[in-house]
Amino acid sequence: MMTCQELASRIEQLQPDALPRDVARLCLLLSNAVEDFNELDVEDRLREIWTRTGLRLQAITDQHAAMTEELEAMARENPKEFSEDDIFRLFRAIKVQSRVLDLYVGQPTFT
Question: What range defines the domain where residue 59 resides?
Answer without folding.
Answer: 4-105
